[in-house]
Amino acid sequence: IRIECLANIKDVKNIYLINFNISNILNTSLNEMQDTIMFEHITFNQVKRHENRKLNEITQFLKENDLDIDASVDVFITITRNEKLIACGGLAKNVIKCVAISDEVRGEGLALKLATELVNLAYENNTTHLFIYTKFQNEDLFHQCGFHTIASVPNVMVLMENSCCYLTRYIKSLKNLRQPGKKIGSIVMNANPFTLGHRYLIEQAAKQCDWLHLFVVKEDTSRFPYKVRLKLIEEALKVSTT
Fold it and tell me: Which residue numbers delimit the N-acetyltransferase domain (predicted)?
């Protein structure tokens, strides 16, 4: 059995950022503007998770656009016109999600401004390797921001990344771990925490395979940190990781 980590990616060589000129204010972040910028009756705001009233408004707006608010989002950027919410997008660590734009303002270029502010906000937070999980109809919009499609469900959702070659390189790197055998199995596991049930699953799968790859989700959004989960798996299976 070989244990590997999933999503252990730190490639920052291919970053695509688009900077918008907002009126006469250049090279000024949202934070430096007290989280608000005005542009032709349009207001950009940052909304944190603790701002309940604004968060309720975002929740309702997302619902009107057939989306649910995601609890993992740390901060939202909203666009309002005359105090009416017309667009929003959220940032959950290095993932852009909860992107919604009112039909009445489509075609005005606001969508691209929203996408740009989300990318720049992530960059300000020293987050350069980004993913986007959004509606299929927003795919072209984020292509303009330098994102590339990883996978999509036509007319439903799309997953994108701001690198044109990382995934290809990562897949090539996995070839170095190829093992001989007719039946090669794999399990993607969070193991939060690792239990006897997890161990039984692994043992049964290993019996049916010539080689079994176990991918442990590295993202720390679980109750138990990645290092703890990985250590529990190693101790239970008495194997070393690669």
Answer: 23-165
